[in-house]
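Annex B. Sample input.
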Amino acid sequence: MSHGIHPRIPRLPALIGALALIGAFGLVTACGGSPHRGPASAGITPGAGQSLPGRPGGTGSASIPEMPNTATAAPTSSAPATPVGPNSVTIKNFAFHPAALTVKAGTTVTWINQDPEPHTVTSQGQGPLRSAALASGARYPYKFTTPGTYKYLCSIHPFMTATVTVTQ
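Annex B, continued. Sample output.
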């Protein structure tokens, strides 16, 4: 490396000289290379009682009309979802509600996706829960026949975890 300058950075004096040369020939303007020299050269002149902001002697101010809010996303509630039934789990706000459910063997648990995004119900490690991606409003029922603790997650969003405990 010469002169302590990184090899990928051009030498500053050469760059400044090139920019001065380009500017001297009028090849670069504030309008991205447009050949006109400002509003007057384009035939734009202020009307009676008006001035052009940014021009010498200009007193006007540029104003940009405010755009209406075009957001279309539905607001989401920060409150947890309430399960639809005693043996159901709702999926809302990227979480399973309730996060821990206890049922008796022989009970069918139904997961209901109330989020606009798809989610799955998938056992962590070995386990019986293997839903397809559930679209908004879709349900996944599973009948638990064997007592135990069943940890599961959303395979699309693995931070979403919960547990079903099955008793006798």
